[in-house]
Design goal:
Blueprint (H helix, E strand, L loop, with lengths): L1 H20 L2 H5 L8 E7 L10 H4 L3 E6 L5 E2 L4 E3 L5 E3 L4 E2 L4 E5 L9 E3 L12 E6 L5 E7 L10
Parallel strand pairs: 7-8
Antiparallel strand pairs: 1-2, 2-7, 3-6, 4-5, 4-9, 9-10
Length: 155
């Protein structure tokens, strides 16, 4: 009995020490919560005919929304499609409760609009997936559309 109680006490002590030693960020991942930044909308099919014109490319976009009141530093975060085309955020902070729209084409980056500076559409109209990863390459949010991810059946 005494031995067991002693073991339990030392385990409890170890647990307390372990918690103190962890950086705050590691402790945050313990409780599952909805992502602080989420993919809030995707316009993968640019209205009108898909041309390679920049105007058409910029009507294809993904929106990210910060669901918290604090700004989130997206530096080093990535947004990628199912084929692995990847956009990396560079020195960008998303303000609290704000939304940023990432366009496919070229343009001047602002607080509300970022541009991938690509010369062709990347989001597949039929089926694709947008994946947002943080600077540690952890998936923060993912959204997909269409049917490509159901098995390997080709029609």
């Amino acid at each position: 009995m005494t031995v067991r109680r002693l073991a339990a006490a030392s385990l409890a002590a170890a647990a307390v020490v372990g918690t103190v030693a962890l950086p705050a960020s590691a402790a945050d991942h313990a409780r599952p919560e909805r992502p602080k930044v989420e993919i809030s909308a995707v316009q993968y099919d640019a209205p009108g005919r898909d041309t390679r014109a920049n105007r058409s490319l910029n009507k294809e976009w993904v929106e990210l929304t910060n669901t918290t009141r604090r700004a989130v530093n997206l530096d080093g975060w990535t947004l990628s499609d199912a084929d692995g085309h990847t956009y990396t955020f560079d020195h960008y902070r998303l303000a609290g409760r704000a939304t940023v729209r990432i366009h496919t084409g070229e343009g001047r980056d602002t607080r509300t609009d970022l541009y991938q500076d690509l010369s062709r559409h990347i989001w597949d109209n039929r089926s694709d997936a947008a994946t947002l990863r943080n600077d540690h390459d952890r998936i923060v949010d993912k959204t997909s559309w269409g049917t490509r991810h159901h098995g390997g059946h080709h029609h």
